[in-house]
Design a protein that fits this description.
The chain is of the alpha+beta class. Helix content is 39%, strand content 19%. Strand 6 and strand 7 form a beta hairpin. It is globular. The mean pLDDT is 90.
């Protein structure tokens, strides 16, 4: 079985293959105690996969690059633990019952949209990944963090992510939908459109 950190390292290699230097923008990993502290502060049971993700890297250094340069996959960058905690508290305060209170935000678009993990009853449960878009509300995007990373890696390998003529990190959306549907069966979000 592939670990979260192995998938992330492979994704970084794919970024490098596109000439993207994302690795220099990622913060050093947090400790599992750091994640446990935030988990306790928020009253959430953060899945082991997310703990491993944050121990691998503690998000993206903000303020030194564009959102496109910071993107782990097109439009989405990984927030630091502290930023994720602040975002969780902000969403709980302002979005109210639109944001799932058991969902811990991990990725942000820079325009008010977030992807987070649903924190289930125990840390061995791999919660589904939900997306909050301020324009459309909540959708389940991926079956788990692992399936999300596998989808991203498969998209890289299939050359579905690319650098546009404008220098921005882009995705072939229709083809990505098919990959996401195959690796996340049963999710309405990725059902192919007619």
């Amino acid at each position: 079985m592939t670990t979260i950190s192995q998938l992330c390292e492979e994704i970084l290699q794919q970024h490098a293959g596109l000439g993207r230097n994302l690795e220099t923008l990622l913060l050093p990993g947090a400790s599992s105690d750091d994640v446990s502290s935030i988990s306790s502060d928020l009253g959430l049971i953060i899945p082991n996969s997310v703990i491993e993700l944050y121990c691998w890297r503690n998000g993206t250094q903000e303020g030194t690059a564009t959102f496109s340069e910071m993107a782990f996959f097109p439009i989405w960058f990984m927030m630091s633990l502290d930023e994720s905690k602040c975002t969780y508290q902000r969403l709980a305060d302002y979005v109210g019952d639109i944001w799932n209170p058991s969902c811990f935000p991990i990725f942000a678009s820079g325009s008010g949209d977030y992807i987070g993990v649903c924190c289930e009853q125990n840390s061995t449960s791999e919660g589904r990944m939900e997306c909050y878009r301020h324009a459309t509300g909540i959708n389940v995007e991926y079956r788990s963090l692992e399936s999300m990373l596998e989808t991203i890696l498969d998209a890289f390998r299939g050359k579905l992510f690319f650098m546009g003529d404008d220098g921005r990190f882009r995705v072939k959306r229709a083809e990505y939908r098919l990959v996401a549907h195959r690796l996340n069966p049963g999710l309405e979000r990725w059902v192919p459109r007619e």
